Hints:
The structure is a single chain. The chain is α+β, with helices and mostly antiparallel strands. The chain has 2 domains: about 5-70, RNA-binding S4 domain (Structural Genomics Hypothetical 15.5 Kd Protein In mrcA-pckA Intergenic Region, Chain A), CATH 3.10.290.10; about 80-285, 2-Layer Sandwich (Pseudouridine synthase). About 15% of the residues lie in helices and about 30% in strands. The protein has 6 helices and 17 strands. The protein has helices at about 20-25, 30-40, 110-115, 150, 210, 230-240, and strands at about 5-10, 45, 50, 60-70, 80-85, 90-95, 125, 135-140, 155-165, 170-175, 175-180, 190, 195-200, 200-205, 220-225, 260-270, 275-280.
Amino acid sequence: MGLRNWIFTVAPDEAILRLDQLVAQHTGLSRREAREALKLGGVQVAQRRVRVASRTAAPGTEVRVAVDDSLGEPPDFELDVVFEDAWLLVLNKPAGLPTQGTQASDRHDLMALLARQRSSQRLILCHRLDQGTSGLLVLAKDPKANLGPSFQERALRKLYLARTTVPVPEGDLSAPIGRLRLAKPARFGCSGDLIDPKPSLTRVRSATSEEVGDLAPGCWSVCELCTGRTHQIRVHLASLGTPILGDGLYGGEPSDQLWLHAWRMELVHPVTEAPLYLEAPPLRFRRP
């Protein structure tokens, strides 16, 4: 059944109920299923995840419940390390793995996996990648190495590979991007009834045969992300009528994967000040 969501407000006569009882009553889930949703972090009370089944909620409190039947067991595999020193950890994130917790779980994502594998480290996420996007993801091991401000101030260079069904015109895409009001599922756009549109810049050129010669044939573009808006490359390419292959949210042709990869990054090390040139080969796109 995939993802299911419920939102309800606690009535005065429900304030005595345990949270697992309350969730079961409003969703049709069994008490056992309600406790499992709580365990996974799929229940939010007043916008905070709650796991304690015996807890109660005051009248008027908003409760959100999310259950994803496709989750399975929490992931348990070794992540591909591209670069690591005393200050930074750079990973090649696999496609399909959320960077952070989702509505239904905060145990099935990359940060949760790292917390289990590197429990002695307090890793700081410097930026995010969409669930379907693979490639370079930077984390800091110390606040002194937090590159978050550098991402916000555009003090580094990020290149993505994107495959489309028709060629993308080369040039600068500078249309502002904002959330589309009332869109379900939530998505962003460059036109229409936008909420808080922000300046955005993506530079696009066609990939060379040397860059993508060993990848599945198609229309490949190199996209330089000059700002960091949500879904920026996906939205900008879709605005040209050239959505990314597999990007159903923005009108892309159907595929078993999203053909977008965070490929290369150039930056100055935040502590040592040494130049770093990072690359994550797009192995999932290689010819069979």
